[in-house]
Design brief:
The complex is a heterodimer.
Chain A: E1 2-12, E2 17-23, E3 36-40, E4 51-54, E5 57-59, E6 64-70, H1 74-80, E7 87-94, E8 106-111, H2 115-127, E9 133-138, E10 155-159, E11 166-167, H3 170-181, E12 187-191, H4 194-206, E13 210-214, E14 230-233, E15 236-239, E16 246-248
Parallel strand pairs in A: 8-9, 8-12, 9-10, 10-11, 12-13
Antiparallel strand pairs in A: 1-2, 1-7, 2-6, 3-4, 3-7, 5-6, 13-16, 14-15
Helix pairs in contact in A: 3-4
Chain B: E1 7-9, E2 12-14, E3 18-20, E4 42-44, E5 61-64, E6 67-70, H1 79-91, E7 96-101, H2 108-116, E8 123-127, E9 131-132, E10 137-138, H3 143-156, E11 161-165, H4 172-182, E12 186-189, E13 193-200, E14 203-210, H5 215-226, E15 233-236, H6 242-251, E16 255-258, H7 261-264, H8 268-283, H9 288-294
Parallel strand pairs in B: 3-4, 3-16, 4-7, 7-8, 8-11, 11-12, 12-15, 15-16
Antiparallel strand pairs in B: 1-2, 5-6, 6-14, 9-10, 13-14
Helix pairs in contact in B: 2-3, 3-4, 5-6, 6-8
The chains are: A alpha/beta, B alpha/beta.
Bound molecules: flavin-adenine dinucleotide, flavin mononucleotide (FMN) and FE2/S2 (inorganic) cluster.
Chain lengths: 255, 297
């Protein structure tokens, strides 16, 4: 589960977002949407913890995975300096994954870099003949990378400043569209900040729509041994790296 | 080269001087897929308490310059679940087994020790850095309490007892002497250091500092402790390399335990054991025991 792999691309998408492409061996367990990898961005004593990133896409025939990330601190800054051909050490694929079947009519709701696992989910659903509805929100137009990747008739885009798509937060736009979308969809999948997930869950619950959410938290080991990465569920704390990152939103003890 | 890393610890042979520290190896089965068990002398479980503990609210772990701050809050499954669900897989591991016990009342230590008496584990470690509810201080900050806990634990169980100490004390020698008097078989220095950080403006995390910045503190406390006791000492704090082990031995430790490094590199024991062999070879030693006798221990 610990790998030294080759970076085959690390492309800036705008001033702060990058797409990292990593070559994987045939022995790499096929990842599933929702799972993440735990990257060693630097060596000790400068870097003491790995950084977790969702898998953004997986191409088995090309033997590669991609990570969509945003520079927010030291680790992601160093990651952005990785060059094609360099080695990268990671653990993975880790964690659980989104659950769906061929009767699922999904709505994927994400904000900012939280779209990463949903993009992978979208790809997998599409290749299984399911056309998801998608609602993605960003800060401004500059951040709306990948918008052309989604099926336009089922794609809702919004930005906080209104520079692309509808103006408003994801949760505002969801509230606006849910009254008619609720007839079509039967499950919401989401990833992002906890406050946003809570609002989405409450709307889904009111409309009696199933809802799965993927959480982020500061992580230590990433493999279930340190208890560092928990979220409170109705059964007590659960490890995001092991029992998560994806949880049935009904199971969460929302505060 | 065939450098022999085995050491004798309390009458038992450890394959290497590398012990996996409490709290960073789970209940011990989880890490094994990442490493060659032959690189590890002993493994220590997460500190186990009488009752299951939920632990602290997140965030629980943050990287700061030179270290890691954790605030896990002794989250663990409790002794009954441990005995029922985890002990048998722990016992199957080839290295020696240390079970760490803790609590918030001193009576809990002997009760836990008694429950583990017939469990075929090798050593008990007392996590004395737990908060003593009765006194609102750490057990490890009060010599008399340490003495009593160790004495009562020894009465309750025939298992050898390692007392794990806190760096947050006025004079480590007083605590070490109390542990010796209480009948401790070995000491482990040190647990994480209580600290505070702000991970975002106004967002506070109170927890224990571990990692590279702990090493010089631990070395100093071990050197101090060595002045007053000949008990075996496990050196803990910021061990990331074979050279760190050499430093710990030079300060007076008899073996080391790895904590934070396992969070970054779960396979670290393999690399560290290899580095230790290379260093010993470069010094012209064919075994670790020859090197350690040269340090006067
Ligand atoms: C399961 C999981 C999947 C993730 N997937 C992605 C992804 O696909 N793309 C992406 O860009 N980011 C993702 N993240 C967040 C990413 O791990 C953090 O942005 C990264 O660790 C920050 O490292 P840094 O050294 O640059 O920042 P630091 O200097 O460590 O921190 C800068 C700021 O980032 C925030 N932060 C730090 N660590 C985390 C963390 N583990 N989770 C959330 N916020 C954090 C904190 O608020 C902090 O103030 C994911 C996190 C988790 C837990
Ligand atoms: C996440 C984490 C959890 C820990 N949990 C325990 C514990 O349950 N009991 C204990 O005695 N020490 C615990 N420790 C302390 C370590 O065992 C060790 O004493 C300390 O981290 C210093 O070593 P290091 O610098 O190698 O990490 C924990 C440390 C970390 C980082
Ligand atoms: S990060 Fe260590 S248990 Fe999840």
């Amino acid at each position: 589960m610990e790998w030294n792999l080759t970076v085959t691309g690390n492309t800036p998408l705008n001033s702060s977002h990058f797409l990292l492409e990593i070559e994987i061996p045939s022995s790499f367990p096929p990842p599933r949407p929702g799972q993440f990898i735990h990257i060693k961005t630097g060596e000790p004593p400068g870097f003491l913890l790995r950084r977790p990133f969702s898998i953004f896409s997986y191409q088995s025939e090309k033997r590669k995975i991609e990570v969509f990330y945003r520079i927010v601190g030291r680790g992601t800054k160093v990651l952005s300096e990785k060059k094609k051909g360099e080695q990268i050490n990671l653990l993975g694929p880790l964690g659980n994954y989104f659950s769906w079947d061929n009767k699922t009519v999904p709505l994927l709701v994400g904000g900012g870099r939280g779209i990463a696992p949903l993009h992978f989910l979208y790809q997998e659903m599409k290749s299984n003949g399911i056309e998801p509805y998608v609602l993605f929100g960003f800060k401004n137009e500059e951040d709306t990378v990948f918008r052309e990747k989604f099926f336009p008739e089922r794609f809702f885009l919004c930005t906080e400043d209104g520079s692309a798509g509808e103006k408003g937060k994801v949760t505002d736009i969801l509230k606006k569209h849910l009254p008619y979308l609720q007839e079509k969809i039967n499950k919401i999948f989401s990833c992002g900040a906890k406050e946003m997930l809570k609002e989405i869950y409450l709307m889904a619950k009111e409309k009696k729509i199933a809802c799965e959410v993927s959480f982020e938290q500061f992580m230590g080991c990433g493999i279930g041994i340190c208890q560092g990465c928990v979220v409170k569920t109705k059964q007590g704390y659960r490890r995001i790296c092991r029992e998560g990152p994806v949880f049935n939103a009904d199971e969460i003890a929302w505060e | 080269m065939g450098i022999n890393l085995t050491i004798n610890f309390l009458g038992k042979e450890l394959a290497t001087p590398v012990i996996l520290a409490s709290g960073v190896s789970g209940y011990s089965d989880e890490l094994m897929s990442f490493l060659d068990p032959a690189s590890v002398g002993a493994v220590t479980t997460k500190t186990i308490t009488l009752q299951p503990r939920e632990g602290n609210p997140p965030p629980r772990i943050i990287e700061v310059p030179g270290g890691i701050i954790n605030s896990i809050g002794l989250a663990n499954m409790g002794i009954e679940a441990f005995l029922k669900d985890k002990l048998s897989s722990l016992l199957k591991l080839p290295m020696k087994k240390i079970v760490s016990i803790g609590g918030t009342r001193e009576e809990e230590f002997p009760l836990l020790a008694e429950k583990l008496s017939n469990s075929r584990i090798d050593f008990l470690e007392l996590n004395l850095s737990c908060p003593n509810i009765a006194k609102k201080r750490l057990f490890a900050q009060e010599p008399e309490t340490c003495l009593r806990i160790i004495k009562n634990t020894k009465k309750a169980s025939p298992l050898p007892v390692i007392a794990k100490l806190s760096p947050q004390v006025t004079d480590i020698k007083d605590i070490a002497l109390a542990c010796v008097e209480g009948g401790a078989d070995a000491l482990n220095l040190i647990n994480s250091l209580p600290v505070l950080c702000f991970y975002a403006p106004g967002e506070k995390l109170r927890g224990g500092l571990s990692g590279p910045s702990l090493k010089p503190l631990s070395l100093r406390l071990i050197e101090e402790t060595r002045k007053v006791t000949t008990l075996p000492i496990i050196g803990t704090g910021g061990v990331y390399s074979g050279k760190d082990i050499i430093d710990y031995f030079s300060a007076g430790a008899n073996c080391v335990s790895l904590g934070s490094v396992l969070l970054l590199e779960p396979s670290a024991p393999v690399r560290i054991a290899r580095e230790l062999k290379d260093i010993l070879a470069s010094f012209g030693y064919d075994s670790l025991s020859r090197f350690s006798s040269s340090t006067g221990l």
